[in-house]
Design a protein that fits this description.
The protein is α/β, with parallel strands linked by helices. The chain contains 17 helices and ten strands. A six-stranded mixed β-sheet has the order 1-2-4-3-5-10. It has a four-stranded antiparallel β-sheet with strand order 7-8-6-9. Helix 6 links the parallel strand 3 and strand 4. The termini are far apart. The structure holds zinc ion. Zinc ion binds next to loops.
Amino acid sequence: MTNKLVLFLIALLIVACSAESPEEPAPVVDEPEAEAIHEETDTPVVPLTGLKAEAAEKVDGMQKLTQEIIDSLFSFSELGFQEFETQRYLTQILEENGFTVELGVSGIPSAWWATWGSGKPVIALGSDVDGIPKSSQMPGVAYRQPMIEGAPGHGEGHNSGQALNITAAIAVKEIMEREGLAGTIVLWPGIAEELVATKAWFARDGRYDDVDAVLFTHVSNNLRVGWGRPRGTGLISVEYSFDGVAAHGASDPWRGRSALDAVELMNVGWNFRREHLHPLQRSHYVIVDGGDQPNVVPSKATVWYFIREITAEKIRENFATLQRIAEGAAMMTDTSVSRRIVGAAYPRHFNKPVALAMDENIKAVGLPEWTEDDQTFARALQELMGAEEIKGLATELEGIEEAEEDPVSGGSDDIGDVSWNTPTVTLRFPANVDDLQFHHWSSAMAMATPIAHKGTTAGAKVIAATMLDLIQDPALVEDAWRYFREEQTADVQYESFVGADDEPAIEKNAAIMAQFKDQLAAFYYDPTKYDTYLEQLGIDYPQLERPGSEEEAAETP
Ligand SMILES: [Zn+2]
């Protein structure tokens, strides 16, 4: 045997042994590029597409957990700043899965911050958790039926996003642990998003300072992501409180100074001014305190405004106008006025490199396979709500949303503040039905059904894959920051609407939740007894007709 041959045989033996070694997991999918890097650098490089496929399998394997989280949060039906059952339930799951949980962040008792891992990159997954007042609705039925009359519900679908983030995080964490990959996973809740009242505070308090990328998720009707400025507005949410003098409304009303008069005059002033504001603005108000009874001149009254526009500059301009109108109303009524910032949302700007990477993952994952029952249910809801087109659930991806040169008006989300602090994208995932009404009971109908469960699982696969992109590809993190520094913030400086002394409005919704808490508790989902919430509620999904309605209809002459 020549020396060469001996060496060759030894080499062959080493290769054969190492291939069978149990410590070395076989790659799920071959990736020649990754292997080439391996040979050159001799550092362990894991095939990325293989890991993504594995993460997707893991997410699929957690479908039961996804369903339980979605159904549980749906049943808690908690409003902003009062998400305490939600907090208890979710943080327990996170702790059981090795996350370190901090409760009560930024002076917000229902908030929390969960972290796992160490080193860079730091990837923060966020999603909102709060519900909508008076949107209590039985899920899985295609007719109006409140579970509890007048109670809150998930009339937008914020009960789904945390299930998405948690399952994605667990899947990626397991892979990172096995492969010894560096990186930190953060999970955080959008508390009181329906009041747009916390993310600017998280940002103010430096919560995103060491974060490399925020992957935010929001319920929708398709899988999509965008970059740049999207459609929609930013806002300032502000309460004006007037202070007057009480008096007997009949015996000596001239001794009174009505705070309610000031509120009404302020609203009249603003409503006249509307005609002369740019049509892209949106503004609305509710009177949160209009006095106690008619025969007592109201010494206190409060009105709560949302002032929305496309740019931060315009929001500030309209806010200054509102302030002058408030002062004018106080002058007219000889009352005094004070104001309080309740919420804020900067106009959003999403990160292009991260969005492009995520869009590739969206294409790879695709939309869920809907059953005929899902489609029948979705069409029934669209029929019920008078949708423009009865098209059922999405079966085709819509593609990436390009930056809007001139965004049109619409809603706001305080993820905007996060997006000006660190590279951020929002993944929209298909857990709800298109063309219903948001902030309305109709948007709760599908949110504890297989539509929500499957749409959330699809979204989790996209987030897991994008996390792996960020962890495995340092160039993507660099690109994200380059875009953030050189393009997004080159000419625009973020200046929060929230000052150092503005406290979060944590008392909001406490009275409503206190009123309904016991009734809601009777409806909490019990996964130890029932496979799904629909089963617990005795609903035969999709339940299109009210039970007994057919017989009744037949009896009616
Ligand atoms: Zn929302």
